[in-house]
Amino acid sequence: MFGWTQGLSLLPIFLVSWSSATFIVSYLIAIYRNDVDVIFPYISDTSATPPESCIFGLMTFISASAGTATVYARFKYVEKMNEGTNVVASRVNTAALVLGLISCLGMVVVATFQETAVIVAHDVGALLFFVPGILYVILQVVISFQAYPISSSVVICRARLGFAIIATLAFFPSILPHKSHVFSARKDGDYPFHIASAVCEWIVSFSFIFFFYTYIDEFKVSKGPQGHMTQACLPRGKTCFLHVFLAVF
């Protein structure tokens, strides 16, 4: 059996791959239709008009579902790993679960309410996605260092810390006031700020998404209280996406 098919390791792989494809596909369609400029448009701009808005909405809903499953599976993993060790505060694990679920809800709101339709709802959804998402990543960094070396390796801990730092630093420039369409912004003096903000938005999104790649090894197998490898704490059985969602929910 391939290593990446063990346990629920396919879940974070699917989440990262599908979410990345969601942004890239809507971007390519928007470029092909000349709806946005090729130079770093906002992610929301690439999904503001049909048909890319429809495709983006559908793919984002699938990403949010996979994200919900991954967040919950991670919660159960930490909960199981914590039995008999109590190295991770249960309140921290629960808070991370709530923040992760809120972030997934924000994804759905962003995809449902395009910025050209209901901009207030769209902006609220973006904040629900980014702010709780970054806080979720930070709490997972805390959990990882608390669980070291029982569960997380030092490499994984540092990788998660790196993603958390990048996402946090890039978030603040990404919320700079901006105009929605790059074509009109080019004619204004705030175009450099527009580009900086858009670049940071892409950085925040992909650093948050690729953070879930660090779950792959832990979703395969787990370490017991004495550091010995045991069967995965997560639901057992054939690893297919139908089983994953049935096992998690």
UniProtKB/TrEMBL annotation:
Q: Residue limits of the CWH43-like N-terminal domain?
A: 8-220
Q: Which GO terms describe its cellular component?
A: endomembrane system; lysosome
The alphabetical list of record keywords is: Membrane, Transmembrane, Transmembrane helix
Q: Where are the transmembrane segments?
A: 7-32, 55-73, 94-113, 119-143, 155-175, 195-216
Q: What is its main location?
A: membrane
- Please, one GO biological process term? regulation of autophagy
**Domain of life (superkingdom):** Eukaryota
Spell out the subcellular localization from the entry.
Endomembrane system
What is this entry's stated membrane topology? Multi-pass membrane protein
For this protein, the record's Pfam families field holds: Frag1 (PF10277)
InterPro entries reported in the protein's UniProt record: CWH43_N (IPR019402), DRAM/TMEM150_Autophagy_Mod (IPR050911)
Return the similarity comment.
Answer: Belongs to the DRAM/TMEM150 family.
Q: What is this protein called?
A: DNA-damage regulated autophagy modulator 1
The species this protein belongs to is Takifugu rubripes
